[in-house]
Amino acid sequence: MRARQSRPSVARTYSYILGGRDNYGADKDLGDSFKEDLPGSEQLAITNRAAVIRAVRTVAKAGVRQVIDMGCGLPAEPNVHEVLRQYHPDATIVYLDNDPFVAPHGRALLAVDNNIAMLEADAREPQKIFDEPEVQRLIDFDQPVALLFSAVLSFVEDDEDPAGVVRFWTDRVAPGSYVYISHFRPGETREAAATERKILEAFGGRFRSSADILAFFDGLELLDEGLLPCRQWHPEAGMPTTEEKELTSWEELIVAAIARKA
């Protein structure tokens, strides 16, 4: 455990930037270095989290009652199940994360009833996840499911076949299912390049082009305006428009899209 504490993790650093308290010194140090060395870069985490919550509202309004949250990270208010259950009190949710620190914390805070599960699992092993008894118990694959890939594919290397991970699930979910993906994309400014370098040095992974990210949706029907920076994606009432507030260099680095299986 001590070795894990000495290295920052994606989930714990992300949580720290969002105001969470379940983290270690290494996570705080890295989070603080983003805030102090690259002020404004914390918007990557903030706008990404806000977009995934809007995605949950979108699928809930479409009638989806089942969600698998790949790489969910540590609990953050509001949580996915809380948003989904505003529309469907009987909704079922499976949270997944490969960080061994996340699973026990998540079980304590998220698994509040028998229709919610928190599993220690790696998104790069979809067959193993699919075969999990809790997944089979909670998810009816003959009914629409929402799959959330919130930034997680950014940490899947090309040789680990991120497109194959998405395709595994889209081949198995029912028509009417939704796939939401947010992903890091390279920027053009010096600040953007420094942020990309810091993230990749700490966690590995890939920032991918818009074309590469859109390829994950092959065979699905893209909704809204396709791929957009998270702050601009699926805007709701009260959100600032681009005319009112220009995107920062950092906000352009995290993009999102949602698609439906016909």
UniProtKB/TrEMBL annotation:
GO terms for biological process: methylation. The keyword Methyltransferase applies. SUPFAM superfamilies: S-adenosyl-L-methionine-dependent methyltransferases. It holds the Pfam family Methyltransf_19. Keywords: Methyltransferase, Transferase. GO terms for molecular function: methyltransferase activity. This is SAM-dependent methyltransferase. The lineage of its organism: Bacteria, Bacillati, Actinomycetota, Actinomycetes, Mycobacteriales.
